[in-house]
């Protein structure tokens, strides 16, 4: 891996390189995606089935697009019992973590006849997108469905592209059933996002769409935003390891590669105060690349978006981490909890030598759907909050409104909104 000393120019160059991975730079695909979205909006099922045959190589009809109970039973027969056991354990952890995020409605009453509050209501119907093809991620199924279930969403619909045999991967199906999806449709790509956003003859319109996907899915979510809510437009995965000379170079190298294997566009960065560790990690990475699968993907990821950055001290290292605002941040320092308190921008923070990123991906409980491309500066991980809406509640009695009505009228008149002022005045016009 390339080793670079931290300075203003090097960080500016790196941030510029990382931004090239952003979905905001996918303009070349937008015209094609928008055409698909508009076609599905206009022609519904007919367009969805045409695109499914074109892109996924399988013919669907209104009778075969919905996964049947028989198909789910068949999936259970094909899934390894050990994987099913792990899925069930992971669901317990994910559910327990997200239960703590639940919010309740609240109301505050005052003696003068005022009641103010906030009413929390789950969304009625949500759509979860799950990638298919070569990449099968039952963990993403759990991370998107469980918080919706905890939030109280009445209907959770999953869409995922079918294989050429017209079936959904059994691991994906079993994860969906265990997590609580009510319906699964064999549709993927931009056409699936459009179907969820606008509804078709067989696929109902939803209130929100969540879940990861490729460039076409990301741009389709961007195109339908406003007709429905979305979670985010996620970019490629990324990891930043912040380490000093107490870190184990073999652990650091392994963790960097755990993200580099996702995608040629994935980013893996080490920020360290130790030149010795930097060299050791680079050597360990080279060693792992000779033994692991997906070597070509990892090498391209590291060549394009992999860095080992040497900071003069821990403060500079923390500043770099906050500037990059990585999706995953691992802290391997002598006092990792102290460093954690100084981190302001990160999707998920992993503390210590044994809290590696895959722990969060699969099992610990916190959500692994995280902000990417520096958006951890202002976005949060997927949570129960993403599946609720809040309504303000206001009640004033006549006795409460009377002493303040002229204040409100004054405010409205200053804004030249006389109908606003009149709405208050008519309630006291006989006095």
Notable features of this structure?
18 helices; globular; five-stranded parallel beta sheet; 431 residues; Rossmann fold; 14 strands
Protein topology:
Elements: E1 3-5, H1 8-19, H2 27-43, H3 45-56, H4 69-78, H5 81-99, E2 106-110, E3 114-122, E4 125-129, H6 138-151, E5 155-159, H7 170-179, E6 183-185, H8 189-198, E7 208-210, H9 215-224, E8 229-230, E9 238-243, H10 249-260, E10 267-272, H11 275-289, H12 295-305, E11 306-310, H13 314-324, E12 328-332, H14 336-340, E13 348-351, H15 357-362, E14 388-396, H16 398-401, H17 405-414, H18 418-425
Helix pairs in contact: 2-3, 2-8, 2-9, 3-8, 4-7, 5-6, 5-7, 6-7, 8-9, 10-11, 17-18
Could you describe the 3D structure shown?
Keywords: Amino-acid biosynthesis, Histidine biosynthesis, Metal-binding, NAD, Oxidoreductase, Zinc. It catalyses: L-histidinol + 2 NAD(+) + H2O = L-histidine + 2 NADH + 3 H(+). Belongs to the histidinol dehydrogenase family. Catalyzes the sequential NAD-dependent oxidations of L-histidinol to L-histidinaldehyde and then to L-histidine. With 431 residues, the chain is an alpha/beta fold. Helix content is 45%, strand content 16%. The strands form 3 sheets. A 6-stranded parallel beta sheet has the order 1-11-10-9-12-13, with helices on both faces. The longest helix has 19 residues. The relative contact order is 0.15.
């Amino acid at each position: 891996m390339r080793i670079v000393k931290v300075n203003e120019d090097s960080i500016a160059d790196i941030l510029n390189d990382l931004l090239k991975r952003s979905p905001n730079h996918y303009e070349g695909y937008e015209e094609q995606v928008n055409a698909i979205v508009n076609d599905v909006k206009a022609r519904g099922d007919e367009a969805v089935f045409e695109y499914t045959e074109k892109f996924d190589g399988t013919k669907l009809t209104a009778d075969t697009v919905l996964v049947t109970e028989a198909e789910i039973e068949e999936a259970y027969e094909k899934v390894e019992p050990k994987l099913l056991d792990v899925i069930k354990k992971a669901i317990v952890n994910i559910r327990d973590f997200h239960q703590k995020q639940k919010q309740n409605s609240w109301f505050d009453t005052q003696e003068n006849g005022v009641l103010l509050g906030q009413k929390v209501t789950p969304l009625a119907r949500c759509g979860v997108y799950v990638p298919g093809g070569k990449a099968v991620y039952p963990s993403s199924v759990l991370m998107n469905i469980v918080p919706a279930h905890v939030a109280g969403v009445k209907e959770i619909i999953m869409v995922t592209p079918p294989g050429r045999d017209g079936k959904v991967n059994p691991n994906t199906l079993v994860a969906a059933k265990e997590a609580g999806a009510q319906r699964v449709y064999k549709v993927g790509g931009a056409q699936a996002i459009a179907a969820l956003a606008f509804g078709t003859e067989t696929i109902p319109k939803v209130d929100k769409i969540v879940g990861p996907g490729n460039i076409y899915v990301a741009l389709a979510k961007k195109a339908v935003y406003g007709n429905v809510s979305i979670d985010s437009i996620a970019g490629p995965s990324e990891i930043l390891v912040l380490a000093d000379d107490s870190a184990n170079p073999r652990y650091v190298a392994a963790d960097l590669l755990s993200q580099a294997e996702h995608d040629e566009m994935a980013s893996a960065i080490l920020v360290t105060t130790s030149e010795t560790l930097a060299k050791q990690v680079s050597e360990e990475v080279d060693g792992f690349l000779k033994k692991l699968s997906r070597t070509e993907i990892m090498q391209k990821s590291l060549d394009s978006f992999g860095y080992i950055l040497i900071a003069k001290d821990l403060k500079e290292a923390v500043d770099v981490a906050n500037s990059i605002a990585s999706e995953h941040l691992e802290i391997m320092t002598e006092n990792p909890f102290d460093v954690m308190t100084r981190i302001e921008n990160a999707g998920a923070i992993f503390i210590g030598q044994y809290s590696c990123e895959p722990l969060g991906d699969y099992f610990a409980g916190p959500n692994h759907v995280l902000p990417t491309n520096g958006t951890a500066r202002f976005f949060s991980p997927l949570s129960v909050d993403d599946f609720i809406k809040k309504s303000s509640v206001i009640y004033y009695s006549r006795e409460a409104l009377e002493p303040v009505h002229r204040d409100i009228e004054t405010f409205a008149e200053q804004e030249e909104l006389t109908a606003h002022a009149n709405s208050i005045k008519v309630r006291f016009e006989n006095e």
